[in-house]
TrEMBL record:
Keywords: Membrane, Signal, Transmembrane. Residues 1-20 form the signal peptide. Residues 7-198 form the Outer membrane protein beta-barrel domain. It comes from Grimontia celer. This is OmpA-like transmembrane domain protein. The keyword Membrane applies. It holds the Pfam family OMP_b-brl. SUPFAM superfamilies: OMPA-like (SSF56925). The lineage of its organism: Bacteria, Pseudomonadati, Pseudomonadota, Gammaproteobacteria, Vibrionales. InterPro entries: Beta-barrel_OMP, OMP/PagP_B-barrel.
Length: 198
């Protein structure tokens, strides 16, 4: 099933350029601030991550004067968290990244330059976790990837036909396991970025 899902995701990303002949292309850069909540193995923990980033490329399909339907592929790095566990006898480094595709309908508010975008996406989320016992070189590592859904909303302002600023909120839900670790991960992300249309 993972192989099938990965194949479909890559097919969607690589086939998109063939649809771009009569539509607008855009490229985006975003800063990410994320709150990650994990639940599993009898405990719940929340970590804040700042300094993440995302790179996106998409196509806008004009439906009407006030409505576009977009398709977007995004690579995201949610940043790395460092924390202590086991009574401060172990230090941990934990990071999450993803590649995703999203459907993004956009409504333009008259000629004000403002617009609102909904986000519905699906992606592959990978984590890397490294734990080191304090005062030793003993290190345990774990990595895994699973598919999850993304929901969100964005507000945009077009400075002109080619440059826009965007701010948004996204929620991603991923179920990891059963091995090497069995837990649910929720990523709540505030994104601030800029898009360039061509």
């Amino acid at each position: 099933m993972k192989l099938l899902n990965t194949s479909l995701l890559l097919l969607a990303v690589t086939s998109a350029p063939a649809l771009a002949n009569d539509n607008d292309l855009y490229f985006g850069l975003e800063y990410l601030a994320t709150e990650a909540t994990s639940e599993g193995q009898g405990s719940t923990s929340t970590l804040d991550r700042e300094g993440g980033f995302a790179i996106s490329m998409g196509y806008m399909y004009g439906i009407s004067d006030n409505f576009d339907l977009g398709f977007e592929a995004t690579i995201s790095d949610y940043g790395t968290s460092n924390f202590q566990t086991n009574g401060n006898v172990a230090s941990n480094e934990y990071g999450v990244s993803s590649i995703s595709v999203s459907l993004k309908p956009t409504y333009y508010i008259a000629d004000s330059g403002f617009s609102v975008t909904g986000v519905l996406g699906y992606g592959s989320f990978s984590y890397d976790w490294e734990q080191t016992a304090t005062g030793t070189s003993t290190t345990v590592t774990s990595t895994d990837s699973e598919f999850g859904y993304i929901y969100g909303v964005e507000a945009n302002y077009d400075f002109n036909d080619n440059v826009a600023a965007t701010i948004g909120y996204k929620l991603a839900e991923i179920d990891y396991g059963p091995t090497p670790l069995d837990y649910d991960l929720e990523l709540e992300t505030l994104n601030l970025g800029v898009k360039f249309r061509f």
